[in-house]
Amino acid sequence: MAALGALQLTKNTGAKHTATVIFFHGSGASGEHLKEWVNLMAKNFSFPHIKILYPTAPLQPYTPAGGLMSNVWFDRVDIDKKAPEVIKSLNSIERDIKMLIKKENEIGISNNRIIVGGFSMGGALALHTAYRWESNLAGVFAFSSFLNDNSVVYEELKKCDKNVSVPLLQIHGNADDLVDISWGQTTFNELKSLGVQGEFYVMERLGHSLNKRGLHIIQDWIEKLLPDI
User: Fold this and answer.
1) DSSP 8-state code for residue 5
2) Which residues pair with 118 in a beta bridge?
3) Is 208 part of the annotated catalytic residue set?
4) What's the CA gap between 121 and 27, in Å, rounded?
């Protein structure tokens, strides 16, 4: 498994760092690209007490791109919710994500002061992180994302519901031509049926993209879940 790429961050603007947000990019992008995109759209996506991490996925062959090398968190058989998950690939990235969170724990940021989230594939990664790999995170958000049918996330929540209390925020454009909004809604409804509590926002006329309104919703939600202490 290739190593993670460069890690970008937005420091807390105040004197004390008491919480962290980890924001995962979509397939083929980078932490640097996502940070620039977020700050271009939201202008001031920062917090007095919260540090934002923008990691970069490993460079590895990506099957939907014909096996070409790409910065992706995990491989897919196809961009289709009916396709099976590539479990071996998911297991490989799990170690890297756990290490990112462990490093925050080691500087005094406990899991209940950490939110994970992402765009597209990054949102799917965040769902695996919050509902499978870690426990007691403060929240998880997913923008234009989906889980495959019969995802191992669902299977593990059925076996052990310790993480269903992690609040979920999903946002999706109703003009998304890569990840149909119905895929996101199915994911949300399935997680809700397993006990997860959350909110689902529809962005009118938005394709497969972030937007200013969605980022402001995420920003307000983060401030609510991670108040200064």
Assistant:
1) -
2) 24, 142
3) yes
4) 6
Residue 163 is predicted with a pLDDT of: 81
Distance CA(58)–CA(72), nearest Å, equals 6
Residue 209 annotated as catalytic: no
Residue 81 CB contacts under 8 Å (≥ 6 apart), including other chains: 146, 147, 148, 149, 183, 186, 187
More confident residue, 58 or 160: 58
User: What is the distance between the alpha carbons of residues 98 and 95, in angstroms, rounded to a whole number?
Assistant: 5
Catalytic residue among 27, 89, 176, 209: 176
Question: For residues 74 and 67, what is the distance between their CA atoms, to the nearest angstrom?
Answer: 12
pTM above 0.85, yes or no: yes
What is the spatial distance between Cα 188 and Cα 81, in angstroms, rounded to a whole number?
13
Average pLDDT over residues 161-184: 94
Q: Give residue-wise pLDDT tens across range 92-133.
A: 999 999 999 999 999 999 999 999 999 999 999 999 999 999
Task: List residues bridging with 114 in a β-sheet.
Answer: 20
DSSP percent split of the chain into helix, strand, coil, nearest 5: 40, 20, 40
Residues 6+ apart with CB under 8 A from 71: 5, 25, 27, 28, 29, 30, 56, 57, 58, 59
pLDDT bin (cut points 50, 70, 90) of residue 46 is: very high
* Catalytic pick among 70, 120, 145, 151: 120
Is 80 one of the annotated active-site residues of the chain? no
